Amino acid sequence: MMTTRARRRLPDDRCLATSIITASLPCPPQRHAVTAGQTSTSRLCRDPGVDGSPGVLHSVEMLDAKVGGNPLPLEPFVNWLDQHGRLKFSGLADQLHAEIPELGAADPDTLEALRASIVSHLPGMRATFMGSNPDPHLPKPAQDFAYLMARSNIPLSAVLRSYELGHAAIWNEFTSHLRKQQSWTVARRAEALESGSIRLFEYMQSMTGETITTYNRARDSLMRATNSRRNEIVRAVLSGNGGVRELRELFGYRIDEVHIGYVAWSVDPMKHEEVSELARRELLGFARQHVSVTTDSSVIHGWFTPCKNSTFDDLAAVSLPRTIRLTLGSPRRGIRGFHHTHREALSCVDLTALHTPAPTRFPDVAVTVLATQDREMAARFVDDHLGALRSHEDGERLIKTLRHYMDAHASPTRCGQRLGIHPNTVTQRVQRAETILGRHLDPASLALRLALDLERTMELE
To answer: Gene3D superfamilies, from UniProt (predicted)?
Structure first.
């Protein structure tokens, strides 16, 4: 019996379902021997083909009869491919090239590559309708087209759209051709329609899957080659061994501009492509030009030129995704600035809190960076100024209060607002810290401020 799906595809045969149910086949019911692969002894007959030659075996009960384990050929579709396939497929390339914007805007060679790709499907599609292509493979010209699209940065969605539109166009041509087979019974046309729809869908699904695999393989290969070349060029620039011209010509990055260096990484397991893309998105609205390289599986080193003078200040208010950490060097110009801002961004990495939602900027931690160049001396410095407080049972809470107290310019009110406590409580905690340390705490003391900052970095180690 004809399915609802097939019925919708033959709008001209409005009484098709009724015809299939009520009409008798042109040959009387008879039993046939069941050969290998057949699963029924229902009414079978063979209608004459359009040219009087033997047609395709069919039945009412079996929409896709099989002999010898293989599907029977779908004669009208095979005939259409033989008579019109090359011309129609070639013309389809022009149609898709015009309808899909990404293809139309691509290199002029794209059209002929698309045409070769579409035409190359003729043998495989014909074999599918003949029932002799159980495992179709993507033709070489179609593989070449997928590689070309990947190299040209044409999105995969545009390539898949060409298959979607091509599938629809071919099916429309097939159904139009099938309706013209007036010598065929309605039942026979319905059976061909149903089986043809299934086989074409399976073929296109298989080709689409292989195209996705081919495209992604090409993109991965190109990205590895591009990343490797970019890493070589950036290393050359940093070492003073050239690379400036290549950086501009191959990647569009000018070295004579102002640069802000950065380091980005993830606190969760994540591929470097994902980290790079997240960092690029965060900086997209701030960068006039941008380049980045991969150092290991999840750490990205990058540079960008700020869009305006206030960009560096604006970045202090950026809220990063939960899993991403970002350090920034100071804005600096030229090739020396390219070097210096990179080193500054690197020096901030160990000072970035695990929970910080904002980028760590070098000027904000410069004193701490300088003081931690010798870790052993820095540890002794902290112990000299805060040792008794660090070993006290209430030391963690008191040190946190002192840190906010200093940041609030010794204002109990502002410090209390930050911590969510009463100003009197702030004053009491400061006095208690002084008692434990045995000295007055001067809010203007650079040594005290530095000791509090260094103590925080030691918490992270």
So the answer is: PucR C-terminal helix-turn-helix domain
